[in-house]
Amino acid sequence: MMERRLRRTSLYIPGTNPGMLANASVYGADSIILDLEDGVPVSEKDAARILVRNALRAIRYRGVEITVRVNALCTPFGKDDFEEIIPLAPDAIRLPKCESPEDVRQADALMSELESRNEIQPGTVQIIAITESASGGTKLSEIAAASPRIAALNYGAEDYTADIGAVRTKEGHELDDIRAKVIVAARIAGVQALDSVFGDVNDMDGLYAEAFRVRQLGFDGKSVIHPRQISVVHSAFTPSEKEIGFAERVMKAFHEAASRGAGVIALDGRMIDAPVVARAQKIIALAEAAGCLLIEG
Amino acid sequence: MPSDRRVTIMSMEKDSRKKFFFTGEQKDIPSIRKKREGGKIAATLEEAFRLAEVRDGMTISFHHHLRDGDLVVNMALDVLAKMGIRDLVLAPSALFPVHEDILRHVRSGVVRSIEGSVNGPVGRAASEGLFSSPVILRSHGGRARAMQSGELHVDIAVIGAPAADAMGNLSGISGPSACGSLGYAFTDAQYADRVIAVTDNLVSYPAVPFSIPQTLVDWVVPVERIGIPEKIVSGTLRVTRDPLRLIIARQVAKIVEESGLFLDGFSMQAGAGGISLAASAFIREKMKAAGIRGSFISGGITGQSVEMLEEGLFSSLLDVQSFDLEAVASLASNRNHAEMSASFYANTASKGCSVDMLDVAVLGATQVDLDFNVNVNTESDGILLHGVGGHMDTAAGAAMTVIVTPLFRGRMPMVVDRVLTVTTPGHTVDVVVTERGVAVNPQRKDLLENLRGKGIPLVEIGDLKKMAEELTGVPAAPLFGEKVIGIVEYRDGTIIDTIRQRI
Predict the structure, then answer these.
(1) Which terminus of chain B has fewer CB atoms gathered within 10 Å of its CB, N or C?
(2) How far apart are CA B155 and CA B218, in angstroms?
(3) Which residues of chain B fall below pLDDT 70?
(4) Element (H, E) at B309
């Protein structure tokens, strides 16, 4: 199943901050992460859970994907998080410490039970898996395939780096391997690959460079920790005029071939196959989101 | 040939003849006497008040160019209290938190009422019913009009002057308490019966360049300090970094760009608040990108306005109030940075005011309602906390008036069914910009046409209210008593709204 939703940016919102919870959809990110996990101190876990639950009940978030980063089921907080949050059917949960397909299956089962109990179609709430260990990094394909709920693969840069014994650097080469693994596994499974945060909220140039680089590697988006990072990442994920032009021509050839009933799509005398069409579709979607192709409305 | 001319000789008394024919005696010309005796200097403020023949019940006026660093109002009231004067009417162009001391004089009977403006603690006291007669709230233009027409008759104007000479030439651009433009003080100097200048910077005669000429000033009182410099002018005002306010500001710039007014000769006025400053910054970027050369920025001038003048984005600045040190320095040195009086700025009874030449005004609000009426005087709890400023004037004159406000502040919606106080009437308000949507006044079909299909989140004003209430719920209405504690006067002198006592 091809995951189509745009997730160029995923903005972390601490679950303890009512002001930010109220305004989450205004900042312009594609996806929002209401955080119950690492952004919340242990002493506040229960307060955050209640606040986020109430926000999901009371606020009609418009035009964004709403996801909640719950605590892992292996922690004392995880089960309560699931029980309070799943009944409110956010678009997805972000599942940290996803190191094996079993972790996914366990969450899936609990979610199905909670959905049925609350008259929600089982399978409604998706999962974005966050892998944070060396071991998990070797099982990404299985994780991606462990449940139809899986919409995207993500990794936790800090924890992963610590686990493999590397040093976290600005250039980020210690993440080359996990990035490659995430992308490959995501593509095979037909889900999205999402990159981790860029911690320096004052370095917009560094952020742009990293976002541009990971887009080139094949990532579909990046997490951000401050609203002012959103527009920077969006520009990095905005296709160039050349890319858009080419994509438009590919789509035109595709539609033309389809209307003729032809099985082969040709452009400039060369054969265009499915992956190229898929990429062209993605580029058009990014271009639309960036407002490059303004549709009168 | 004998002449037919007849000369009629009027019979005149000896004294009356003195008035017609030069007798060679020295006439008592006050100015000559003053020059000989050291100008118009009065040793103390008390002496100046005595020379001005201050009496109970008089109207005393002040300008607010020294803002929250002003020491003049409190100084003057302390002196008047000591002199045993009572029942005064205060006519400030605006008040600041530093003027909370006025309340002491109100309670002791020195000050009877206030006409013109209130702020913070004084407004709150008014809402609580402290004053025996209602506070009259006027805009900058309205105050000038009222003084010109005589409706507001000022007996004595006290003008804090950052620089003054012994003959009463006054300026705001130099001295330790430099404040830049003395725009609001012009009206006081022009229409008050008597004018006392108070200065902490006596300069040698003549004080060129001067703003207010000696021909309007009666006495000059040198004092230790007229203001606290760091509270008069801030260092360079910073653009907000709040993501929500930046979203609103960006939207404003986009709207200006698509309004149909964004051409060479473009003019604008924006406040110095966080959102307005940011909006100006984004407009600045768009002007550079589009190669547009504007005609003027007017109103309160900031360092950012000065930079836009120096960058060639605008040909001139019309300054009625200088907000920071950059603005003061520019006024002093740049010929294209002009000082303007409150009358020039906004007085409908003048022969033309600058607000009528404005393309775009970006203004704030404490509340907006479904008819696009704007409240800037009372907060959501009904307490009178702010004066009018130039809001209703600028909104009336500008070709496009843009109101910026977050959709809710704290748990209070900013878009309501009906504002608690109508300061600026809805027919002068064109666009309301919040972080969640933009509402255009339906009477502006031309603007709606221009703004559609440009990626601007256009919604009905009613939808903005609904969005706010979804989050905040509908607040309980504040309770008011019968007593009218404030009268809001429109620019033309008519009463646009009243404010009642909060109970």
Answers:
(1) N
(2) 12
(3) 1-37, 234-236
(4) helix B303-310
- Structural domains of chain A sorted by starting position, each given as residue range(s) with its CATH number in brackets: 9-236 (3.20.20.60), 241-289 (no CATH)
pLDDT tens digits, residue range B482-492? 999 999 999 99
Q: Burial of A4 by CB count in 10 Å (0-12 exposed, 13-18 middle, 19+ buried)?
A: exposed
Contacts of A22 in chain B (CB under 8 A): 471
Q: What are phi and psi of A292, to 5 degrees?
A: -75, -30
Q: Please tell me the predicted confidence (pLDDT) of residue A256.
A: 86
Longest dimension (CA), chain B: 105
Quick check: B471 and A58 CB within 8 A? yes
Q: What is the pLDDT of residue A1?
A: 42
Mean residue pLDDT of chain A comes to 93
Report the percent of chain A where pLDDT is more than 90: 78
Task: Report how many helices (DSSP H) and strands (DSSP E) chain B contains, helices first.
Answer: 17, 24
- The shortest C-alpha distance from B437 to chain A (Å) reads 10
Question: What is the signed CA dihedral for B372, B373, B378, B382, rounded to 10 degrees?
Answer: -80
- In this structure, are residues A98 and A62 in contact, taking their beta carbons and an 8 Å threshold? no
Reduce the DSSP state of residue B9 to 3 states and report it. coil
The DSSP secondary structure of B199-252, one letter per residue, reads: ES-B-PSS-SS-SB-GGG--EEEE-S-SB-HHHHSBSSPPPP--HHHHHHHHHH
Q: How many CB atoms lie within 10 A of CB B295?
A: 17
Residue of B149, B152, B158 whose CA lies nearest to B64 = B158
Instruction: State residue A126's pLDDT score.
Output: 97
Using the predicted structure, report yes or no on whether residue A63 has a pLDDT greater than 90.
Answer: no
| E-only strand ranges, B59-150 | 59-62, 88-92, 111-116, 135-137
pLDDT of A158 higher than 80: yes
Q: Which two tokens stand for residue B51?
A: 């020379």
pLDDT confidence bin for A296, thresholds 50/70/90: very low
At B116, is the secondary structure helix, strand, or coil? strand
Q: Does A28 touch chain B (CB under 8 A)?
A: yes
Please answer yes or no on whether A26 and B436 come within 8 Å at the CB atom.
yes
Q: What is the DSSP letter of B478?
A: P
B471·A22 Cβ contact <8 A:
yes
Closest C-alpha to B245, from A204, A27, A33, A231:
A27
N- to C-terminal Cα separation, chain B: 94
State the ipTM, two decimals: 0.81
Residue pair A30/A243 in contact (Cβ under 8 Å)? The answer is: no
| Whole-angstrom distance, CA of residue B164 vs CA of residue B183 | 16
Interface test with A, best of B246, B405, B451, B456 (most A CBs within 10 A): B246
Q: Which pLDDT score is estimated for B204?
A: 92
Pairing state of beta strands B412-413 and B408-409?
Answer: antiparallel
Q: What is the pLDDT of residues B87-104, one digit of tens each?
A: 999 999 999 999 999 999
